[in-house]
């Protein structure tokens, strides 16, 4: 089966609100094994909404709408759906009683136009609204379905979860299961070139590369009659991909980079300190996101000025004079200095030019050096990062944690 999502409301078309409903519904439908090939947004206009319904019903088994179920004249979704299906509406006494009860509990007088929300075509499945006054409905005609949901997300999500999802589960014989590989340190084009044959060979499972939060992800999705079978189909694909690009895969599904690195430090009983210049504390702040990191995280210093690099970290003034604050040599001494001062097994240092000003032809904006000290051995990596000031600092932080991850894998 396939479905189409129509979001109704002029406020969506004008950009006054962000359409989170469509995102939520698309994900939920995918998990139910129902394909979504089209999404659209339509204003509160009868002719355009009729056209959207008619076009959608030509290509989809199910149309799910959000919005346009209020008591005012411009709330027309239900009325238009009934017109398209040529179904007449009548008042549903049970729905009317619930609406009246809702207003009574609030101590507010119900206006006459709220009765509009209690009208439905005969035979429709009426969906309870536990967070508002507008019930939803499931309409059916000639093996086509229109599922009408309210617009406010807190009303729509609960109605979908409690009423629509069980109904759709009974209709669908298949489910989708997805696993996500999270990669860092490899470009999208390079990744595709290394696994293009695996991608091209697949139909079920399917492989979809995409970028999220400045890193690459591979979503492997299988369709089957149960979760166990789907996972059994996915696992061999994951192993194939690991054989090609395993070094760049740092986690699966919802595990973050800081979680991976923090667990490695704790399991190996390695203490850590950080000395940051261009990242301004983001490295230490990111590590501290992980509960339990206090057992190994000793100290984090933001040594932005040359004076603090000298006084706090013991960076040689001659190094700064000869090579500059943004240099391999300075990053190396920063990492060694913070590890020595706080007697830690591990240290991270960052120094760079985040911009938007301060770059030169030799040292452009985006130039970053990251030092990693582990038990007496220091390595420094050079990066040219792109983006605005915030993006460069975030990318530098991710690279710093990934550099540490790779070094820890060698132990």
From TrEMBL:
Q: Read off the Pfam families from this record.
A: CinA, CinA_KH, MoCF_biosynth
Cross-referenced SMART domains: MoCF_biosynth (SM00852)
Domain MoaB/Mog residues, every copy: 4-170
InterPro entries to which the protein is assigned, alphabetical: CinA, CinA-like_C, CinA_C, CinA_KH, Competence-induced_CinA, MoaB/Mog-like_dom_sf, MoaB/Mog_dom
Family listed: Belongs to the CinA family.
Q: Which PANTHER family did the record assign?
A: NICOTINAMIDE-NUCLEOTIDE AMIDOHYDROLASE PNCC, NMN AMIDOHYDROLASE-LIKE PROTEIN YFAY
Full protein name: Putative competence-damage inducible protein
Organism, per UniProt?
A: Romboutsia ilealis
**Gene responsible for this protein:** cinA
């Amino acid at each position: 089966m396939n479905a189409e999502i129509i979001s109704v409301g002029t406020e969506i078309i004008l950009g006054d609100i962000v359409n989170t409903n469509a995102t939520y519904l698309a994900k939920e439908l995918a998990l139910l094994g129902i394909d979504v090939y089209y999404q659209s947004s339509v204003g509160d206009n009868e002719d355009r909404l009729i056209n959207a319904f008619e076009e959608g019903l030509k290509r989809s088994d199910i149309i799910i709408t959000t919005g346009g179920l209020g008591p005012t004249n411009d709330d027309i979704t239900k009325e238009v759906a009934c017109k398209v299906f040529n179904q007449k509406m009548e008042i549903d006494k049970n729905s009317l009683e619930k609406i009246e009860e809702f207003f009574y509990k609030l101590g507010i007088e119900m206006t006459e136009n709220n009765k509009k929300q209690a009208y439905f075509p005969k035979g429709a499945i009426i969906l309870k609204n536990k967070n508002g006054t507008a019930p939803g409905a499931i309409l059916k005609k000639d093996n086509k379905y229109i599922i009408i949901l309210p617009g406010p997300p807190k009303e729509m999500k609960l109605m979908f979860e409690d009423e629509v999802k069980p109904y759709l589960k009974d209709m669908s014989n298949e489910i989708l299961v997805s696993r996500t590989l999270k990669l860092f340190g490899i470009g999208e084009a390079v990744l595709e070139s290394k696994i293009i044959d695996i991608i091209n060979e697949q139909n079920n499972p399917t492989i979809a590369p995409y970028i999220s939060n400045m890193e690459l992800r591979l979503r492997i999705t299988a369709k089957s009659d149960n979760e166990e079978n789907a996972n059994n189909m996915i696992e061999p694909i994951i192993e194939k991909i690991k054989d090609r690009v395993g070094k760049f895969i740092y986690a699966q599904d919802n595990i973050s980079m800081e979680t991976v690195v923090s667990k490695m430090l704790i399991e190996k009983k390695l203490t850590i300190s950080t000395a940051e210049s261009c990242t301004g504390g983001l490295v230490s702040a990111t590590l501290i996101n992980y509960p339990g990191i206090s057992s190994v995280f000793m100290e984090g210093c933001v040594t932005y000025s040359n004076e603090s690099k000298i006084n706090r970290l013991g960076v040689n003034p001659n190094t700064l004079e000869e090579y500059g604050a943004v240099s391999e040599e300075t990053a190396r001494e920063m990492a060694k200095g913070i590890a020595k001062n706080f007697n830690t097994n591990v240290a991270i240092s960052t120094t760079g030019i985040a911009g938007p000003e301060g770059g030169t032809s030799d040292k452009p904006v985006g130039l970053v050096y990251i030092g990693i000290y582990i038990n007496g051995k220091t390595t420094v990596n050079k990066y040219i990062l792109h983006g605005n000031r915030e993006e460069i600092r975030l990318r530098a932080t991710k690279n710093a944690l990934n550099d540490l991850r790779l070094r820890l894998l060698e132990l």
